[in-house]
Design a protein that fits this description.
The protein has 267 residues and is an alpha+beta fold. It has 6 helices and 15 strands. The strands form 4 sheets. It has a 6-stranded antiparallel β-sheet.
């Protein structure tokens, strides 16, 4: 049995993603040569796509993020293709209790508090919200640490309650559909169309690191986008390209699924 080589997959992905490719190739080789099941940290959709490409049909690959259609998931690689059940993914669910009469939490508040713990964000899964309720997923072996070290989010003093996965809230799909006619599929053109800013303003946003493509920071505004690409712009929201069609005048009709950022409400 030969080890697979990372450079086999370089041509399929951006140069900046080579460390991710090399890491997943290492996991795959470990699974093969030790003949053991591998459980990953939480992966964003792009990371899971890379892992799926590497695994192909050479092993079982299963994923779960604590809820159906989760964005971030943990993946299991199994050399024997043995199906995985929810408990195999070792995911804990926390609900945030806070004085909602006096404070309004935002996704950025929760994510910022988590990031300030100094723990890699791959330890955490999706952050869920419905009205004034907030929950998030975390790797089970970090649950106690998180509960002991997250006393505050923003200006609100909070407590965390660990719940069974059956008590997860189902977030509303507040996405919108937005259609734009553009002259090209370049990153700066699409950022300009989405945000209704000028091309120069869009280029400035990108060069300042305010945009992400497929969950990764980008500064090259000449990148050409395609269907399924996920674009996010700070303070604006996220947009997934669902359709691209040519027009009679040689332009492009691009349809986005759009999730706008929440507006800040002062307490």
């Amino acid at each position: 049995m030969e080890k697979i080589q990372a450079n086999k997959y370089y041509k399929h992905f951006d140069d900046s993603e080579r460390p991710t490719i090399e890491y997943f190739v290492g996991l795959f080789n470990q699974m093969q040569f030790k003949h053991q099941r591998i459980l990953t940290d939480f992966l964003d959709p792009r990371e899971f796509q890379i892992l799926k490409t590497i695994v192909g049909n050479q092993a079982g690959l299963f994923s779960f993020g604590g809820i159906n259609n989760a964005e971030k998931v943990r993946a299991i690689l199994d050399p024997d293709w043995m199906p995985a059940i929810k408990s195999d993914f070792e995911i804990s669910l926390f609900e945030i209790h806070y004085p909602s009469k006096f404070y309004q939490l935002r996704h950025s508040d929760v994510l910022g508090a988590i990031a300030n713990l100094g723990i890699d964000l791959s330890i955490f899964g999706d952050i869920l919200n419905f009205e004034d309720r907030w929950q998030f997923f975390v790797k089970k072996d970090f649950a106690s640490y998180i509960q002991d070290n997250l006393p505050q989010i923003g200006r609100a003093t909070i407590s965390l309650e660990e719940l069974s996965l059956e008590k997860v809230i189902i977030p509303e799909d507040n996405s919108l559909e937005q259609t734009e006619i553009v002259t090209s599929l370049r990153l700066d053109t699409l950022v300009s169309a989405l945000t209704h800013k000028s091309r120069n303003q869009a280029q400035e946003l990108i060069s300042q690191g305010e945009a992400k493509l497929n969950w990764h920071s980008v500064t090259d505004f000449n990148i050409i986008l395609n269907i399924e690409d996920l674009l996010s712009v700070r303070h604006f929201g996220r947009a997934k390209i669902t359709q691209i069609m040519g027009t009679r005048k040689g332009k492009y009709k691009v349809v986005f699924q759009l999730w706008k950022s929440q507006k800040i409400r002062k307490n």
